[in-house]
Amino acid sequence: MFGSSGSVIWGTLPQGSISRDTQLLPRFGDMTKTVIFGAGGNVGRLVVREALRRGHEVTAAVRNPARHPGLRTDGARVEAGDIMEAEQVLALVEGHDNIISTATQYNPGTDSDAFYTASTRALLAAARTSSTRRLVIVGTMAILRDAAGVLLADAPFFPDETRPFIRSHALGLEILRTEGADVDWLYLSPSGNFTGGGRSGHYRVAEHGSWSDGITHSNLAVAVVDEIDRPAHHRMHLAVAN
User: Fold this and answer.
1) Burial of 201 (0-12, 13-18, 19+ CB in 10 A)
2) Which residue numbers delimit the NAD(P)-binding domain (predicted)?
């Protein structure tokens, strides 16, 4: 199980239970310029706040800024952009040190395969051709594997109607793995019960996930920004849990 027999990791891959508490980490966010795609979502909004809290200069990229007036109130610069359009992504990324994406698409009648393949390739292309140092993407826990190597989405209770959406996430991750060797990317997924609870600043990262774990939206945001301020993992997919 994750947190017991699974490998919990920080930087290298030691065995045992190692956690990260953001209160103990040095803050390197001052003057850092970070663009965040999907900034208007439940997780994206919290990532924006966390980055601003650390002293980042934040550009919040959303499709329709008029729908997210609170982002400006929080202190972010808000820009319109379609993450599926490579030229728009490049224009938004230019001049930033880091890219974060919490963007998702799960609506009836939409082509989620096209969304995740196009957006992942657009992010990689922008990271290659700009001054960007780091790309962190947040994706569904369903494409994590447990300690036995079983995909979490293969659990018998998992709803069949969500499987096309899960496959789309997996396509995006595979593009990172096969086409992103020249980009410093990281893919993070919440493990287990994903809730809107508060921010403790404490979390764990691991190679495997488990339905029995959990993480709050706020603590996932902490983990995301920690990997910008102090990158510890590179070109891999990790679970994040409380």
Assistant:
1) middle
2) 38-231
What is the model's pTM?
Answer: 0.87
Domains and CATH numbers, the chain: 20-241 (3.40.50.720)
161 vs 62, 108, 164, 167, CA distance in Å?
A: 27, 11, 7, 11
Both tokens assigned to 102: 């919490």
Torsion angle in degrees (nearest 10) through CA of 223, 75, 86, 113: 50
| Position 107, amino acid | N
Specify whether the CB–CB gap between 40 and 71 falls below 8 A: yes
- The CA distance from 150 to 221, in Å, is 26
For residue 123, give both structure tokens: 């992010």
The size of the chain, in residues, is 242
| CB distance 175 to 135 below 8 Å | no
Copy the structure tokens of residue 70. Answer: 């609170």
Q: Is the pLDDT of residue 2 over 50?
A: no
Q: What is the C-alpha to C-alpha distance for residues 205 and 144, in angstroms, rounded to an integer?
A: 12
- Compute and round to an integer the Cα radius of gyration of the chain: 17
Please report the pLDDT score of residue 9 as a whole number: 39
Cβ distance 99 to 136 under 8 Å?
A: yes
